[in-house]
Amino acid sequence: MTGPVPRPAIRGIGVYVPGKSRVEGALRAVKLSANENALGTSPKARAAYLAAADGLFRYPDVRAGALRAAVARKFDIEPERLIFGVGSDEIFTLACMAYLDLGDNAVQPEWGFAAWRLAVAAMGAEMRNAPERDYVVDVDAILDRIDARTKIVFLANPANPTGSAIPYTEVLRLQRGLPETALLVLDGAYAEFARAMPGFDAGLDLARRAPNVLMTRTFSKLYGLAGLRVGWAYGPESVIAALDRVRLPFNMTAPGEAAAIAALEDDDFARASIAHVDRERAALEDFLHGLGVRTIPSWANFVTLVFDEDARARAIDERLAGRGVLVRGLANYGMANCLRVTTASAEDMAAFRAEFELTLAG
Fold first, then answer.
1. Is 198 helix (H, G, I), strand (E, B) or coil?
2. CA distance 94 to 243
3. Rounded mean pLDDT of 29-34?
4. Phi then psi for 171, rounded to 5 degrees?
5. How many CA atoms lie within 13 A of 256 on its CB side?
6. Dist. CA 307–CA 109, nearest whole Å
7. Pick from 169, 116, 111: nearest CA to 137
8. What is the dihedral sign for C-alpha 343, 287, 199, 137?
């Protein structure tokens, strides 16, 4: 007996592989595999989330009106040009649903975020990779991959899983080189951690002015709300309207919206989170370089390690896991010789350093 047969494009999609979250037999793992906020969650956001429990029997606002107003006020942008999603991931999917058809293609840097490829493949479109220069986005290579059927270009700045970033002048050059019919999705999940980078800009003004730029942001990283899955995007009204047509109603939960509003207003927590990442990222890079380990210069809340051989990275990953320390192997990104390490609490970073030294020695 045969059942319903999914579309061929669906049958070829691999399942997203998240970072490891537990160690068999261990009561507690040092989790450095998912780029979560080292300081946890804003106390104000937690209180707002708990307070929302009294209204769980109510449907949420289909337009996320209160969060829409809060984001617009915080970033001085037009509320009608915002859309909200279940993390940034849903917004990437909405963009693909709205703009990709069979025979179309999207372009990403060589080491692009895994969720983009899944969303493109689900629409039966082709994802094209543009080679990078030593793990840094090459704008010319992206432009070389574009043709008349290119409908979306994805760019994360800073990038995941590399942590590298490019200056705003390069982002602008990319946008100016695109046909207006190609949507530039500018993923700013880690943008807050790159403020100190010379020439960096998250692209808010570009999304305000350009007819083909959609900037996405998330509450998962800086604001510590990864478990609630709240993301947003800002762009031209025509693009927002297209995405809104395929967005499921009530995709924002009321507790998630309440927590996001409170998190957005907690400037002290945001500043502390950025300062912690700056400090621990620099310390982690210094530690690794002292051991002769190569790293990709990072502007995110993680550092990516580069080894000479795939087997070396895999062995270190497995040995660390055996010691209760979880890092992110990147074989599913085509970077099997790399490991990604989140900047966590001072206690967890000390545990990583101790276990990493033992692992290298063993």
1. coil
2. 6
3. 94
4. -60, -45
5. 24
6. 21
7. 111
8. negative
Residue written as tokens 């074989």?
331
pTM of the model: 0.94
Are 297 and 163 within 8 A, CB to CB? Answer: yes
Structure tokens at 295: 């790293």
- Tens-place pLDDT, residues 159-210: 999 999 999 999 999 999 999 999 999 999 999 999 999 999 999 999 999 9
CATH of 43-265, one of 1.10.3720.10, 3.40.50.410, 3.40.640.10, 3.40.50.2300: 3.40.640.10
- The 10s digit of each residue's pLDDT in 78-121 is 999 999 999 999 999 999 999 999 999 999 999 999 999 999 99
Contact 225, 41 (CB under 8 A): yes
Distance CA 330, CA 128 (A): 19
Backbone angles phi and psi of 259, in degrees to 5: -65, -40
Amino acid in the structure at residue 61: D
The whole-angstrom separation of Cα 211 and Cα 200 is 21
**CATH class of the domain whose range is 14-35+268-361:** alpha beta
Q: What are 352's two structure tokens? A: 């990583």
Distances (CA, A) of 115 to 14, 92, 187: 11, 8, 12
Among all chains, which residue has been given the structure tokens 């046909």? 179
Q: Where are the domains of the chain?
A: 14-35+268-361, 43-265
The per-residue pLDDT for 24 is 58
Parallel, antiparallel, or unpaired: how do β-strands 183-187 and 150-156 relate? parallel
Q: In this structure, what DSSP letter does residue 18 have?
A: P
SS3 state at 152: strand
